[in-house]
Specification:
Among the domains are: about 60 residues, no CATH class; about 240 residues, Aldolase class I (TIM Barrel). Helix 7 packs across helix 9 and helix 10 runs parallel beside helix 11. Helix 6 links the parallel strand 7 and strand 8. The chain is of the alpha/beta class. The longest helix is centred in the C-terminal third of the chain and has 20 residues. Strands 11-10-9-8-7-6-12-13-14 form a nine-stranded mixed sheet. Strands 2-3-4 form a three-stranded antiparallel sheet, covered by helices on one side. The protein is about 40% helix and about 15% strand.
Length: about 450
């Protein structure tokens, strides 16, 4: 038997912790020291009893000492579960044009640059073709499995530049649902800055039950530092006006906040203020994709600290939460292992030129290409090994936060390491900080 890959000793607390189950055992310092000495050794039961005495049986029962083959089989089962390809999401890049010039936009990175070339709107025929392809790829999904979801997202650029396409695409989505080609529970989302909304579109969003995710990064002086027009004019007032237009007709609005060095210390009070100004349900906070903007050295840790603070404050005061952090907190209190949070293995992204990719942020990366819509099949997707899970990286297997970590953003990995199979530094450091904070390590 061997020391589990997931066993960690914390000398300062005289504690052992199993990173896969978060079970903890308090032990004498001498036992902790012996634990360190057996790393990599294959020991018999008699040898374990000799070293650990009365603690040997407990350590085996709680998974700190294991049969190597049994643990390897368990890891392989987890990998199979995490990387099982099942397309559940379609991103339609309805235009590569945008009315803003945000300084942290991931489309400016070398791996994308979609907004840096000739701007183009998606045609209705391309959107219909993409929806038909998506319906084929999802046709055999097990929609009855627990927590199953399916989603179609209108993305850009700024999607409201091409409103006409959205109207027609939603009409086609409804037809596919009615005819049984698309799961009736498929959600429709639009990711927008809300500046170009009018009354007709806001009413349409309500009638079609579209979730409207709107980017807003803080009070006016903070928001306008990063989110401005191409001639440098701030966008805050126009965004607030757009949000109010959507809410006037009862559309579901989800504010989306990109956490920066500029806004992180005011997140809790800003969300509180925003809730008082424009009533909404939940909201989302995102850390910057690694290497898309210059940040302070401790940006990931500081961002995580302030996101937790914001989540806890507004959950208690306003009954609203950041849904991602809410899901993350549940992992500390149940037996589940975090699923891969990068959507690259679950989605296809279609650009106006009918070319399809896994990730919308990596258009220039060959390993991210899916090809033309005519060539995409679910079997072809299953054969692709374009990313690896955290349980296939030695560095991650040795990390105490592996249970709650979703593996990070593939674009963040590529921007930082020039590979889709590396670690996303911003996400990795933020998750470790949340883990240490919650576990009081």
């Amino acid at each position: 038997m061997k020391l589990s890959k997931f066993a960690h000793s914390l000398n300062n607390k005289k504690m052992l912790i199993n990173a896969l189950t978060l079970k903890k055992i308090l032990l004498h310092e001498e036992v902790i020291n012996n634990f360190e000495k057996i790393k990599g050794l294959d020991l018999s039961n008699n040898e374990l009893q000799s070293i650990f005495g009365e603690y040997a049986d407990i350590l085996i029962k709680e998974g700190f000492i294991v049969e190597e083959e049994v643990e390897n089989n368990k890891i392989n089962s987890i990998i199979e579960y995490l990387e099982k390809p099942q397309i559940q999401s379609l991103y339609l890049i309805v235009t590569t044009n945008c009315n803003l010039n945000c300084n942290y936009c991931f489309y400016k990175a070398d791996a994308s640059q979609s907004l840096c070339g000739v701007n183009k709107d998606m045609s209705i025929s391309t959107a219909i073709k993409a929806l038909y392809t998506f319906s084929k790829l999802t046709m055999n999904n097990n929609v009855n499995q627990e927590s199953y979801w399916q989603q179609i997202t209108f993305y850009g650029g700024e999607p409201l530049i091409n409103k006409h396409l959205i109207y027609k695409a939603v009409e086609h989505i409804n037809e596919l649902k009615k005819e049984g080609f698309l799961w009736s529970g498929s959600n429709i989302v639009i990711n927008t800055n809300a500046i170009l909304v009018n009354d007709d579109f806001a009413k349409f969003a309500k009638e079609e039950n579209i979730e409207v995710q709107i980017s807003i990064d803080g009070y006016e002086n903070i928001h306008d530092k990063n989110r401005y027009t191409k001639d440098g004019k701030g966008s805050f007032k126009d965004v607030i006006k757009g949000i109010k237009t959507f809410l006037k007709y009862g559309a579901k609005v989800v504010p989306m906040i990109t956490v920066t060095d500029d806004n992180m210390e005011q997140l809790d009070e800003f969300v509180d203020w925003l809730k008082s100004e424009i009533n909404f349900g939940d909201y989302g906070m995102n850390i910057l994709i690694s290497s898309t903007a210059e940040t302070n050295n401790n940006y990931p840790e500081n961002a995580a600290e302030n996101m937790l603070k914001c989540h806890e404050f507004n959950l208690q005061k306003n009954g609203i939460c950041d849904y991602c952090i809410g899901d993350l907190m549940e992992l500390f209190n149940n037996d589940a292992i975090a699923k891969e949070n990068c959507g690259i293995s679950r989605k296809i992204t279609v650009f106006p030129n009918e070319k399809a990719y896994f990730c919308q942020a990596l258009e220039k990366v060959k390993d991210n290409e899916l090809g033309s819509l005519d060539d995409i099949t679910i079997d072809g997707i299953k054969q692709r090994k374009f990313k690896i899970t955290r349980f296939e990286r030695e560095e991650c297997l040795n990390c105490i936060a592996i249970k709650i970590c979703g593996g990070g953003c593939v674009a963040g990995s590529y921007n930082s390491n020039n590979t889709l199979k590396g670690i996303d530094p911003n996400y990795c450091r933020a998750i470790k900080h949340i883990f240490d904070k919650y576990m009081k390590l």
